[in-house]
Amino acid sequence: MAISSPDWETPATACLAPSKLKRLTYSDISRYAAEAQFSAAYCFAPMPGDGAPEHIRTLVLLVRTYTPGGLLVDRFYPASNAAFHAARAMAERIAEENGIEALPLSNLKLKPMCRRHAAFGTGINTLNYLPDIGSRFCLELVGLSAEVAQERAIPYDHSQLSCGDCRRCQRACPGGAITEKGFEKERCIRFYMLSGKPMPVHLRKYIGGEAGARAIVGCDICQRVCPANARMEERRTAEDDFTLEELLLCDAGTLADFAARYGKNYAIRNRIIAQALLAAGNTGAPGYLEIITALTQSSSALVAEHARWAREMIEKKR
Question: Interior CA angle at 184 toward 183 and 185, to 5°?
Fold first, then answer.
């Protein structure tokens, strides 16, 4: 499969389940995936517990790489939204051209599927990794009612990622979510972002930080410091789709654009404004005070709480 940025190729494994339905090959799947702008495709038979419908004979795990960056919204989110729509278009095309059923199944748990596949490694931060690109990719899943034939044997190295005694992500995590006992999501900044709940006070100072690793949406600091991501970090950009003021105001046009870029599930006005308020407060810039002060009177308890905190932070720095 032709791959763009970075340049690598990983074929699929076999789906060994017998079938009388139309027989597709890995080359067929890799062509569909490449034309849908995915970086790689892995095919395997579903297992009990995956949650796939009973008539699905093959699961196609799709990988789409992205360039890290973004100061306000991590670049994972536009990439993930694009992958979501591309997987659906790919499924429709496979179904139409091959006379089989092809279902988008991104609602299933994809991390466990990666962990049983030899191409992937898993870090102590619980994220999945691939050679060269590290954890900088989005996942999608399509289920097929036909099997996929393997055309050649594919070797994989189970030891491609070894955290060893490296604890860079553990030391860098602002919430202390990465522990020796495992990942504690309630300590993770991302757990609270756009959740509708107030951000714990001790974590608010990290939102919109100058390092750019803790954005309004997305905290990728555990990925940023990981040696396995070094190659992709060289490509990091500061690109943003919105200004902080636009997100503080979040008018109808901004909200619609936000939904189109990142997905409708994230486009909840008061939650966006609440996160933007924390970033504004951390800038210490008096220019935001007029907007912030007005938002202290918001009918949203979340927005009003974050606005009061943001105003206090700016006034302390004056």
Answer: 105
Whether residue 137 contacts residue 13, with contact meaning beta carbons closer than 8 Å, is answered with no
Q: Taking the mean position of all CA atoms in its chain, how far away is CA 318?
A: 37
User: Could you read off the pLDDT of 158-184 as tens digits, one per residue?
Assistant: 555 778 889 999 999 999 999 988 899
HEC sequence for 211-231: CCCECCECECHHHHCCHHHHH
CB 60 within 8 A of CB 72: no
Which has the minimum average pLDDT: 51-65, 73-87, 143-157, 300-314? 143-157
pLDDT tens, position by position, 97-146: 999 999 999 999 999 898 888 888 889 999 999 988 899 999 999 999 99
- Report the candidate in 102, 287, 271 with the shortest Cα–Cα distance to residue 199: 271
Q: Is the pLDDT of residue 84 over 50?
A: yes
Torsion angles phi and psi, residue 108, rounded to 5: -80, 165
In whole angstroms, what is the distance from residue 253 CA to residue 273 CA? 14
284: left (phi over 0), alpha (psi -120 to 50) or beta: left
Predicted confidence band of residue 4 (pLDDT cuts 50, 70, 90):
very low
Q: What does the alpha-carbon distance between residue 192 and residue 201 come to, in Å, rounded to a whole number?
A: 11
- Tokens for 260? 């189109």
The DSSP symbol for 199 reads: P
CATH 3.30.980, applies to 24-149? yes
Q: What angle do CA 171, 158, 110 make, to 5 degrees?
A: 75
HSE at residue 121, side-chain half, CA atoms within 13 A, is 22
8 Å CB contact between 130 and 119: yes
Instruction: Provide the residue ranges of all domains of the chain, joining segments of one domain with +.
Output: 24-149, 243-318
